[in-house]
C-alpha cells in the first residue's frame, strides 16, 4: 500500500508501507550507519524520531535476541529504500516488518532516501509525519503538532533495578539507557544498580557506589529539572563518574558549560574521533543533536579530551578536580565499532584507583 | 624509490596493479621523490609514465638488484605490485649478500612481516600466537592420538594426507561414526602414514574487509563485502556483494576488530585485505587470508565506495599519517579519514571463459571449486540487490540472451540437484530455476549453504519477471521492471518487441533514468562526485559535464584474449583525449581496468554496456563523439543508426588465432592516418613469440586506403611454413596469400614500446584531425627518426591453464591469451 512521508517544510515523499499502518508524528533524522538497524530502532535515544536510513537495504540480518538496546522501540517511523524480509530466530517468524507491526511503528520503503537525505542535510532536522494521504489536512496537522519534550521521562526507568554482578558496584543513572552500557559493565562483572534520573544524592550514596555512570538518553537535556544537574554536581565529588551521550551533555551543563543545537543532527559511525592527548583516532557510533559550546567551557573545571575530526565538535570532557569524565559518542559499540570500548577500561581503572585510595 | 610491477597478466592478475602504480607515481613526484619502475608487461601503462624512470625487464632478482645498484635505489615499494612483487622482493632480500652494499629499505611492511606474509604457515602461527582465530592444523600418526583431538575440534573436520602419494586426499568428516573409515583410508595415502586434521570450513560464509593503517597506528575500515557462495568456491569466482547485508552488526564489528589487530601486529603502513570465514550458526569466526598489499579487493572497494584507497595507501607508505593526508582538490577535505558509507549496492560477478572456449572446441571442467576459473570481473551498481544483480549479469554478458527465463528449462531434476550441490558458472540462473520448480527456501539454503536472504531476493526477481511477462504494454509493470534494473532489451524480450519500442514507451510515460553519485559520505556531505550509476528514482544528480565531451566505451570484463591490451589501449585513448583538452566521459564496469582510475576521465558511468545503457548516457552528456572498440560491430551499427558520431579504434571482431607450431605468421605493419599509408616494419609471429625484423620497408605498400575504415595501425598478414627467426623476407611483390587486418591491440602495445612511438595517441589525434606538424614529420621520416629496438620480443607468459581450467585439449595461446612479457633476452 502506498503511504506518505510529509515534512514540515511541505516536502512529500511517497513510499510503500511496511510495519504498522499507523499515522505518526516525530522529528526526522537521517542515519548513515550501514549495519545495526535493530540496535538503532530500539535505542531510546531515538525516542519520538523518524529515522531515514542511508544504507540501501534494511532487514537482511533479521531480528536477533542479542541485538535489543531496549525492550520496546519508541521511534515514530522508519524510512528505507529497500526492505528485506528475513527471519533468523528459531521460530523463523520474526522479521523487521513483523517487529514494527508488533510495536505499532510505521515504515516506508521504496523511497528515494538519497534525495531525502540530501534534502535534510540542507534543511536540518524537522518535524515530519507518516500518513496515508499527503493532503492539506495532514500538512496542517503536522504544522500544528507540538512534539513532546518529555523523551527522557518516556524512556527512562521509573523504578530502581539491579543487574547483579560480583565486581565493583556501579550506579547507573538512567536517562533512557541503551543496553550496550549494561553489556559493557557486565564485561567487567560489575554489580549494577540502575536508578531513575529522579533519584536523590542520599539514595545514590546509600548504595555506596564504586563508580557512577550517567547514561545515554533522548532529547534536549536542557529541559530536565535542575535537580539532575545538582545531583551530578554532588555525585562527581563522591565517586568516579562516566557520562555518555546525554549523560555527557548533562555533565557539561552541571559544570557550567553550554550546549549548541547542531544545525543538522549527526547520526552515524564513520566520523574519526581524536583522543587529543594521544592523537589516536577512533570510530564509534554517534547520535547527537547537540554539542558542547567550546566557548562556554570553564577551563578551571573542564578540559576537552576528544574531538570530531570532521566538524571539530567536542566529543569528550574531563573534570580537572574530580575523577569524572564524559564522552559524546557511544563507546559500547551496539551498534558500531569497538574502537572506543577502552573508555570503559579507563573508567574501571579510575574506579580501581578510587577504591584503593579510599581503602588506604 | 623503486616500484616493482606485477608482471604478466594471469588468473587473478588483471590490470589492477598497473593502474595502482600508474596513479601513485606522480604522487611521489609531488613529495620531491624520484620514482623508478621495473615491469615486463607490455600492456603496462606505468611503463609509459612520465612520472618515473622505467625498466622493461623481466621481474627477476638479478634485474632488480642491478637496477638498485645502477640507480642507487634506497627505497623499494613492493606492495603496489601485489603478491607477485612482494614475493620477488622477499627473494631479493633473502639473497642479499654482504658485498651487495646496504639493503634498500622497504616501505609499507617490515622485512620480517613480508616473510610471514609470503609464508601461509608462518602467518597462521603468528596470528594464533597473538590469540587470533585461525584454522589450526594437527598432525596425527596413530588412531588413538586422534581421540584427544576429536574432543577439541568441532565437526565437520577436514582430513588430508601429509606427504600424499596421490593427488587430492582431502576428505570431509561430517559425523564421528565416519571418522575411523576415512582416517584409515587417508592414512594409507600418506608417504609417512601421517594425517593432517583441521576444522572444515567449507560451507561457511566468506566475508572480506579492506582496512587502512598509518604509522601512528590509526586505522579505518574502507569497506567490506560478503560472498553469496560459501567457502569452497574461490572468492574471485564467487558472486559477492557490498555492503555486507546478512551479518549482524556485532559480528561485523568483531571482524573489524580482528582486521585492526592484524594490521597492528604487522605494523602495516598501507592497506590490507583480510578474508574471514563466518559460521552463522555457532558464531565462530576464522581468519583465512591476510593480504597486506594492493589486490583486486582494494580496487573493487575503491570503485564501490568512492574512497581513494590507492592514493591514501601511497601516502601511508611514505609515512604521512591519515589525518595529514592532502588529497587532490576533487575530494572532500575529510575523505581520507572518514570511513566510507554506501547508499547503493554493488554486486560483483565473475566472468568465465567457458563459452568462448567451447565455441572453439575446447572442453573444460566447469565445476567451481577452490581453484580460480574465472578470468574477469564486472560490477553492477544499483539501489537494491536485484537491480545490482541484473546490471551485473547484463555487464557480464553484453546481452540478455543467456538470461532468458527459459534458459534453464531443459535441465532435469537430477541434474539440477547435482548442480546445486556442485555449482557451475550458471548458478544464479540455476537457483532461480530451482525456486521456480518449487523447492523451499530452507531446503535450498541447506543444500547450497547460501544465505536465505539471497533466495528471498531471487524469489522476488522471479515474481517480478512473471508479473512483467503477464502484463504486456502495462505502464505500471514497465515502471516496476525498470526500477529493478531490467533492461529495455530484456523487457522487449518478454513483450516480443524491440528495445527502441520499450525505450520510447518509457520516455512517453516519464519513466526516466536517474543517475546517482557514488561518493563515500552516503549523502551526508556535498562531495565533488564524478562517478555515477543509473537507477530509477526521483532525483537525478548527473548533468552534462561539458558541451565538447567525448564518450569512451570501455571494454567491460576481462576475457581470455587481449583484454589487458584493450584496457591499456582505451586508457591511453582517455589519457590522450585529456591531453588534447577534451572533456571525457567513460562507461565501464570492470573494477580492475585502468580506464576506471580516479579522474582519468571527467566523469565515470559505472554501467552495463548495452545500447540502451549507452543511449541513456548519451542523452545526458550529448557527446561530440563516441569512441568504441572496432570489435563491437552491432553496437557501432546501432549507435550510427541513432545518428551518433562514432569513432572506431580498429579491431577485428574476434581475437585472431595464432600460427600453428609449424608456421610463422608474418605481418607488414603500417599506420593509416585517414589519408595516407605509412609503412612501419615487419613482424614475425611464431607460437608464443613475436619479434620485429631489422628489415626496412623501402617500397610503397599496395593497399588502397579505402580498405582501411578508420585511422589506426593495420597489418598485411601471410604465413610461411617455417618457424626459424628470419632476417628479411620478400615483400615486393608479396607473392603469398595475404590479407589485411587491424593490428591486434596487444601487438600495438608491443610496437609502442619497441618503437618508442605512441601509435594509440597518434591514432586518436588522426581520428580527431589533430595531427601536428611534428607528427607528420615523424611519419614521413620514420626510417631515420625512429630507432626500433628489434632485440625486444614479446613472449607468452607461463600460465597454468591445466590447473585452472582442466581442459581436455590445447588452448590457442594467441586467441586465448592470458599474459605476455616483453624481454630483450
UniProtKB/TrEMBL annotation, chain A:
Pfam families (UniProt xref): CPSase_sm_chain, GATase
EC number(s) stated in the UniProt entry for this protein: 6.3.5.5
Family named by the database record: Belongs to the CarA family.
GO MF annotation list: ATP binding; carbamoyl-phosphate synthase (glutamine-hydrolyzing) activity; glutaminase activity
Entry binding sites for L-glutamine: 217, 219, 246, 289-290
UniProt-listed InterPro entries: Anth_synth/Amidotransfase, CarbamoylP_synth_ssu, CarbamoylP_synth_ssu_N, CarbP_synth_ssu_N_sf, Class_I_gatase-like, CPSase_GATase1, GATASE
Location of the Carbamoyl-phosphate synthase small subunit N-terminal domain: 1-131
GO BP terms: 'de novo' pyrimidine nucleobase biosynthetic process; 'de novo' UMP biosynthetic process; glutamine metabolic process; L-arginine biosynthetic process
KW 4Fe-4S (keyword) present: no
Matching PROSITE patterns: GATASE_TYPE_1
Enzyme superclass (EC): ligase
Keywords recorded for this protein, A-Z: Amino-acid biosynthesis, Arginine biosynthesis, ATP-binding, Glutamine amidotransferase, Ligase, Nucleotide-binding, Pyrimidine biosynthesis
Name of the featured protein: Carbamoyl phosphate synthase small chain
Region (CPSase): 1-168
Statement: the UniProt record of this protein carries the keyword Amino-acid biosynthesis: yes
Amino acid at each position: 500500500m502506498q503511504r506518505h512521508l510529509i515534512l514540515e517544510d511541505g516536502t512529500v515523499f511517497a513510499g510503500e508501507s511496511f510495519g504498522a499502518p499507523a499515522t505518526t508524528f516525530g522529528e526526522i533524522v537521517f542515519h548513515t550507519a550501514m549495519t545495526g538497524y535493530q540496535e538503532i530502532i530500539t535505542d531510546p535515544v531515538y525516542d519520538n524520531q523518524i529515522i531515514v536510513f542511508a544504507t540501501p537495504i534494511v532487514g537482511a540480518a533479521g531480528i536477533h535476541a542479542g541485538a535489543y538496546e531496549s525492550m520496546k522501540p519508541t521511534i515514530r517511523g522508519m524510512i528505507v529504500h529497500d526492505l528485506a524480509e528475513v527471519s533468523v530466530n528459531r521460530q523463523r517468524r520474526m522479521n523487521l516488518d513483523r517487529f514494527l507491526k508488533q510495536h505499532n511503528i510505521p515504515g516506508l520503503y521504496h523511497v528515494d532516501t538519497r534525495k531525502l537525505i540530501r534534502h535534510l542535510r540542507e534543511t536540518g532536522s524537522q518535524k515530519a509525519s507518516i500518513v496515508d494521504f499527503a493532503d492539506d489536512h495532514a500538512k496542517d496537522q503536522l504544522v500544528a503538532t507540538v512534539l513532546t519534550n518529555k523523551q527522557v521521562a518516556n524512556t527512562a526507568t521509573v523504578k530502581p533495578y539491579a543487574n547483579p554482578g560480583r565486581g565493583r558496584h556501579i550506579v547507573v543513572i538512567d536517562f533512557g539507557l541503551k543496553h550496550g552500557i549494561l553489556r559493557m559493565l557486565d564485561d567487567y562483572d560489575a554489580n549494577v544498580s540502575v536508578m531513575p534520573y529522579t533519584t536523590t544524592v542520599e539514595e545514590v550514596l546509600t548504595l555506596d557506589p564504586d563508580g557512577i555512570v550517567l547514561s545515554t538518553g533522548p532529547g534536549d537535556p536542557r529541559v530536565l529539572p535542575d535537580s539532575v544537574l545538582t545531583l551530578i554536581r554532588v555525585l562527581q565529588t563522591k565517586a568516579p563518574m562516566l557520562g555518555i551521550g546525554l549523560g555527557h551533555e548533562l555533565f557539561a551543563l552541571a559544570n557550567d558549560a553550554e550546549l549548541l543545537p547542531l544545525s543538522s543532527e549527526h547520526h552515524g559511525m564513520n566520523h574519526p574521533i581524536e583522543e587529543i592527548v594521544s592523537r589516536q583516532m577512533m570510530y564509534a557510533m554517534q547520535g547527537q543533536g547537540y554539542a558542547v559550546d567550546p566557548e562556554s567551557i570553564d577551563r578551571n573545571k573542564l578540559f576537552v579530551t576528544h574531538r570530531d575530526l570532521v566538524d571539530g565538535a567536542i566529543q569528550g570532557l574531563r573534570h580537572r578536580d574530580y575523577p569524572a569524565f564524559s564522552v559524546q559518542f557511544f563507546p559500547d559499540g551496539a551498534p558500531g565499532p569497538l574502537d572506543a570500548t577502552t573508555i570503559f577500561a579507563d573508567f574501571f581503572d579510575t574506579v580501581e584507583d578510587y577504591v584503593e585510595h579510599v581503602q588506604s | 624509490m623503486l616500484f616493482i610491477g606485477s608482471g604478466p597478466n594471469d588468473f587473478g592478475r588483471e590490470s589492477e596493479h598497473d593502474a595502482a602504480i600508474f596513479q601513485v607515481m606522480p604522487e611521489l613526484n609531488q613529495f620531491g621523490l624520484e620514482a623508478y619502475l621495473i615491469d615486463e608487461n607490455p600492456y603496462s601503462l606505468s611503463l609509459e609514465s612520465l612520472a618515473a624512470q622505467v625498466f622493461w625487464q623481466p621481474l627477476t632478482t638479478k634485474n632488480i638488484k642491478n637496477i638498485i645498484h645502477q640507480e642507487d635505489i634506497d627505497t623499494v615499494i613492493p606492495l603496489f605490485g601485489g603478491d607477485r612483487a612482494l614475493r620477488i622482493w622477499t627473494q631479493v632480500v633473502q639473497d642479499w649478500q654482504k658485498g651487495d652494499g646496504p639493503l634498500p629499505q622497504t616501505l609499507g611492511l617490515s622485512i620480517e612481516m613480508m616473510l610471514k606474509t609470503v609464508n601461509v604457515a608462518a602467518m597462521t602461527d603468528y596470528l594464533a600466537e597473538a590469540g587470533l582465530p585461525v584454522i589450526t592444523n594437527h598432525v596425527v600418526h596413530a588412531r588413538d592420538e586422534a581421540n584427544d583431538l576429536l574432543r577439541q575440534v568441532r565437526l565437520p573436520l577436514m582430513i588430508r594426507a601429509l606427504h600424499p602419494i596421490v593427488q587430492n586426499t582431502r576428505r570431509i568428516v561430517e559425523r564421528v561414526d565416519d571418522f575411523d573409515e576415512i582416517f584409515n583410508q587417508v592414512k594409507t595415502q600418506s608417504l609417512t602414514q601421517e594425517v593432517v586434521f583441521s576444522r572444515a570450513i567449507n560451507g561457511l560464509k566468506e566475508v572480506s574487509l579492506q582496512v587502512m593503517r598509518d604509522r601512528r597506528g590509526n586505522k579505518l575500515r574502507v569497506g567490506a563485502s560478503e560472498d553469496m557462495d560459501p567457502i569452497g568456491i574461490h572468492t574471485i569466482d564467487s558472486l559477492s556483494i557490498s555492503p555486507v547485508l546478512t551479518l549482524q552488526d556485532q559480528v561485523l564489528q568483531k571482524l573489524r576488530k580482528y582486521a585492526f589487530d592484524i594490521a597492528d601486529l604487522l605494523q602495516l603502513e598501507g592497506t590490507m585485505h583480510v578474508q574471514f570465514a563466518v559460521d552463522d550458526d555457532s558464531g565462530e569466526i576464522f581468519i583465512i587470508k591476510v593480504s597486506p598489499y594492493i589486490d583486486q579487493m582494494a580496487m573493487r572497494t575503491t570503485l564501490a565506495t568512492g574512497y581513494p584507497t590507492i592514493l591514501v595507501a601511497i601516502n601511508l607508505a611514505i609515512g604521512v599519517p591519515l589525518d595529514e593526508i592532502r588529497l587532490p582538490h576533487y575530494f572532500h577535505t575529510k575523505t581520507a579519514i572518514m570511513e566510507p558509507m554506501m547508499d547503493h549496492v554493488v554486486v560483483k560477478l565473475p566472468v568465465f571463459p567457458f563459452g568462448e572456449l567451447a565455441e572453439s572446441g575446447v572442453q573444460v571442467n566447469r565445476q567451481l571449486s577452490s581453484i580460480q576459473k574465472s578470468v574477469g570481473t564486472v560490477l553492477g551498481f544499483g539501489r537494491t540487490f536485484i537491480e545490482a544483480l541484473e546490471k551485473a549479469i547484463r555487464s557480464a554478458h553484453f546481452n540478455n540472451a543467456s538470461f532468458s527465463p527459459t534458459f534453464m528449462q531443459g535441465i532435469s531434476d537430477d541434474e539440477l540437484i547435482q548442480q546445486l550441490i556442485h555449482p557451475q558458472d550458471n548458478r544464479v540462473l540455476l537457483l532461480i530455476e530451482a525456486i521456480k520448480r518449487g523447492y523451499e527456501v530452507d531446503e535450498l539454503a541447506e543444500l547450497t549453504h547460501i544465505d536465505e536472504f539471497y533466495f528471498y531476493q531471487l524469489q522476488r526477481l522471479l515474481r517480478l519477471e512473471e508479473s512483467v511477462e503477464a502484463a504486456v504494454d502495462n505502464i505500471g509493470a514497465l515502471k516496476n521492471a525498470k526500477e529493478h534494473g531490467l533492461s529495455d532489451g530484456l523487457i522487449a524480450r518478454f513483450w516480443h518487441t524491440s528495445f527502441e519500442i520499450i525505450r520510447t514507451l518509457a520516455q512517453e510515460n516519464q519513466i526516466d533514468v536517474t543517475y546517482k553519485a557514488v561518493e563515500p559520505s552516503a549523502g551526508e556531505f556535498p562531495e565533488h562526485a564524478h562517478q555515477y550509476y543509473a537507477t530509477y528514482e526521483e532525483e537525478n544528480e548527473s548533468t552534462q559535464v561539458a558541451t565538447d565531451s567525448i564518450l569512451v566505451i570501455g571494454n567491460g570484463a576481462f576475457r581470455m584474449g587481449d583484454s589487458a591490451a584493450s584496457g591499456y589501449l582505451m586508457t591511453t585513448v582517455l589519457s590522450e583525449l585529456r591531453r588534447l583538452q577534451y572533456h571525457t566521459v567513460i562507461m565501464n564496469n570492470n573494477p580492475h581496468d585502468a580506464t576506471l582510475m580516479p579522474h582519468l576521465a571527467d566523469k565515470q558511468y559505472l554501467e552495463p554496456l548495452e545500447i540502451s545503457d549507452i543511449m541513456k548516457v548519451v542523452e545526458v552528456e550529448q557527446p561530440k563523439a563516441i569512441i568504441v572498440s572496432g570489435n563491437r560491430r552491432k553496437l557501432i551499427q546501432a549507435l550510427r543508426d541513432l545518428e551518433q558520431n562514432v569513432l572506431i579504434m580498429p579491431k577485428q571482431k574476434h581475437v585472431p588465432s595464432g600460427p600453428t607450431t609449424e608456421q610463422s605468421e608474418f605481418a607488414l605493419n603500417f599506420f593509416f592516418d585517414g589519408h595516407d599509408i605509412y609503412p612501419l616494419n615487419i613482424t614475425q609471429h611464431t607460437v608464443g613469440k613475436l619479434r620485429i625484423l631489422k628489415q626496412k620497408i623501402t617500397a610503397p605498400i599496395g593497399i588502397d586506403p579505402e580498405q582501411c575504415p578508420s585511422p589506426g595501425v593495420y597489418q598485411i598478414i601471410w604465413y610461411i611454413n617455417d618457424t626459424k627467426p628470419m632476417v628479411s623476407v620478400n615483400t615486393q611483390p608479396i607473392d603469398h596469400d595475404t590479407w589485411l587486418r587491424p593490428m591486434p591491440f596487444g601487438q600495438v602495445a608491443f610496437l609502442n614500446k619497441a618503437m618508442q612511438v605512441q601509435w594509440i595517441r597518434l591514432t586518436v589525434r588522426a581520428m580527431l584531425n589533430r595531427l601536428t606538424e611534428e607528427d607528420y614529420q615523424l611519419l614521413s621520416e620514420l626510417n631515420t627518426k625512429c630507432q626500433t629496438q628489434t632485440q625486444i620480443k614479446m613472449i607468452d607468459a607461463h600460465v597454468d591453464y591445466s590447473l585452472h581450467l582442466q581442459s581436455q585439449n590445447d588452448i590457442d595461446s594467441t586467441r586465448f591469451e592470458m599474459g605476455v612479457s616483453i624481454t630483450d633476452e
